[in-house]
Amino acid sequence: MGNFLLKRIIATIPVMIIVAIIVFTLIRLVPGDPAAVIAGNMATNEDIARIRTELGLDRSFLTQLGIWGKGLITGDLGQSFFFKKDVVGLIGERLEPTMALAFLTIVITVVIAVPLGTLAAWRHGGWLDRALMGFSVLGFSIPVFVLGYLLVYFFSLKLDWFPVQGYKPFSDGVGPWLHHLLLPAFTLSIVYVALIARVTRASVAEALTEDYVRTARAKGLPESRVLIRHALANAAVPIVTVIGIGIALLIGGVVVTESVFSIPGLGTLTVDAVLARDFPVIQGVILFFAFLYVVVNLLVDMSYLFLDPRIRY
Amino acid sequence: MSAVLSVRNLSVALPTGADRALAAENISFEVNAGEILCLLGESGSGKSVISFAVMGLLPDNVRVSAGEILLGNENLLTLSPAALRGKRGDDIAMVFQEPMTALNPVMTCGDQLDELLAEHTQLSANERKAKTLAMFEAVKLPEPDRIFSSYPHQLSGGQRQRIMIAMALILEPKLLIADEPTTALDVTTQAEVLALIKTLQRERGTAVLFITHDMGVVAEIADRVVVLQNGKQVEAGTKDQVLRQPREAYTRMLIASVPGTEPPAEGITHDGAALLSVVGLGKTYSSGGWFQKKRITEAAKGVSFTLHPGETVGIVGESGSGKSTVARCITRLIDPTIGDMQLGNTRLDGVSRDSLKLARKRIQIIFQDPYRSLDPRQRVGEAIIEGPLNFGVSRNSAMARARDLMNLVRLSPDVLSRYPNEFSGGQRQRISIARALALDPEVLICDEAVSALDVSVQAQVLKLLEEIQAKLNLAILFITHDLRVAAQICDRVLVMRRGEVVEQGTARDVFITPKHAYTQRLLASAPGRGFEFATQTTSGHL
Known about the structure:
The structure holds two protein chains of two kinds.
Chain A: H1 2-29, H2 34-39, H3 45-55, H4 61-73, H5 87-122, H6 127-141, H7 144-158, H8 174-208, H9 211-218, H10 223-261, H11 266-275, H12 279-307
Helix pairs in contact in A: 1-12, 5-6, 5-8, 5-10, 5-12, 6-8, 7-8, 7-10, 8-10, 9-10, 10-11, 10-12, 11-12
Chain B: E1 3-13, E2 22-32, E3 36-41, H1 47-55, E4 63-71, E5 74-75, H2 81-87, E6 92-95, H3 99-102, H4 109-120, H5 125-138, H6 144-148, H7 157-169, E7 175-179, H8 187-204, E8 207-212, H9 215-221, E9 224-229, E10 232-238, H10 239-244, H11 249-257, E11 276-289, E12 292-307, E13 312-316, H12 323-330, E14 338-343, E15 346-347, H13 357-362, E16 363-366, H14 380-390, H15 395-408, H16 425-437, E17 443-447, H17 455-472, E18 475-480, H18 483-489, E19 492-497, E20 500-506, H19 507-512, H20 517-525
Parallel strand pairs in B: 3-8, 3-9, 6-7, 7-8, 13-18, 13-19, 16-17, 17-18
Antiparallel strand pairs in B: 1-2, 1-4, 4-5, 9-10, 11-12, 11-14, 14-15, 19-20
Helix pairs in contact in B: 4-5, 5-7, 7-8, 8-20, 11-17, 14-15, 14-16, 15-16, 16-17
């Protein structure tokens, strides 16, 4: 297993290099000049040229890539054009709200979706099963921003249960933190509940047809134990895989949710950076997302070892 | 003796739309303490349905429509689900067919027994573990401590079935239901497991309801027998009555279909030029590499034999013996690592797959499972003509030939436009034969081609193969684990074990005077040797 971990970590390096080059290139293919944005509407051509030189944008593409790449090796993502700050520091500042949102969303999703999917599989074709299937279609088809505004309208404006927007850091206490985060996390979780409940249902339903479930029943075990220890335990690998994919998708999804609920996380930072053509920040954030994605994937692969003793790397 | 289980006038209804209304109809029998009752029947006879009805584990849409099932004096059908659950695993236990799938793959073997004890007894964790280890000892598992913390996939098939038996018997149930418990096992393992069940059952006085399709197993283990056909009870009696003086025609037919263990009279020796010759064939698999230690598996090693036109050569062996590897190498479905293979004047090894195309046509193969070897979305006619079309035969003449072939395999040519799911297993295997013959092969490889079939259907298919061979002068390479089948249809036999041929010779020499110890053990393990059932099924010789 140590070997496997080492191999996987080494394999991460080329992935990250390729992502870095693609991100760097893509951004420079998009029209829009950061120097012009920074200089503002009143600037002369000389002003813009001066700013461009300051930012190093007048050098050749390869030189710029080289400078950035050199920084990356030492863990330096460069300086933001717009915020005039270190990109690493900037990501660090915005990390907590995003991670908190993603974490809470996943917790809500798993707590709701896995039991729901399991019960639906157990009572295959029953009312719960059909209700869940109907809900999934709905969950898949409503865009996050529509659902977000709807929930804000009812729960914040009408019922006044939750704040309309904003974020309170964890250090201010769990209560306020949760109070601000619950509605956005719930909004975000709907589509993942739909996805993971369906996968759980399919996977558990298949496990329930297996011979070992028949054996478990022949042993006179209660249905709850048959369902959890025998069916769900064997259905876990696909469920965990999809939860992993969910986490990865979620990190991309926060861009929209954070905008809707005005949460000062990586999502809002990305939007601001794109509007300002803040190349180093965009590069840094995307690279960071890619890194998270790789880490999540690795964790999912590692989890297989614990879920299924037949899997050995 | 008092009856532990009494089944009285039991009928089990199938959901509407099934191929018949009742899965089991008016079934009555009793199982006494210390006795083994065999429910004997072919597929669809309702034998498994009866066992699930006793366990209260019928699928939701299948229900008992009449009769009663008494355990002692208690009617199981009127018990509450909770009360019935309390009896399952405790008073009634069950051993299933496939020990690989019947055990939970993500739980250690020890835990799987432990949860049973935790559910039905008040024992402490230490007592449960001690009891489990003692039971592992009783079913003769080696190193009980290691097995306790092993997962099922780390054990052999026989060991897994011992775990199942340990699990079933640990609470000393009054009734043990064994549903085809040895069908998935190799013959030598089967003999051991049967002996184990019999010993434990004698010691503990357990009543056993033993479900099987295998006449040999019945001969080996039964005290009394109930014969079932299409859900109906055909006849019942003691083992000797049913096997030696069957009253009903169906039972007589079943018994007559069981191939004998002794080969028929010495046949023709096939001299002259060999059609297929294999010299020193070997296949090694290596896994690992990079960071891991390399593991090398020799699936086949130094296999040599010849096959003449009109001759049947059998390769017999247990699972993992390499018999299918040999077949796949000859057809170049996999590439052999070493060795020469020659078909007539054409070399089969060392040439590219493209240049093999013409040789491929001359060797055709029939696989074990007719349910899976035909494309479910392809009409059988299309499946049969696909090969010839590929070799440039016109559609019309290919179809005309397909109609002829259907007559040859005794199916109506009108059914060519149907899909495989509309046929029974035996019919599908006939279609597979027609498909193989459509390319006019010289060599036909039958890889366990009759192993998945019921014994009566198996007899028909074997007879058909024999007729076709005589008509077309086919050379047949017959791969099987079933010694009885091999004894009946092979001219010469190779016995394989762990990739190597341990013995080869004429069928009579190998079966009557086996020289190698392994062959002797294999033959001694064949169930039901005391009963020489058949009068020969096949009229002597292929």
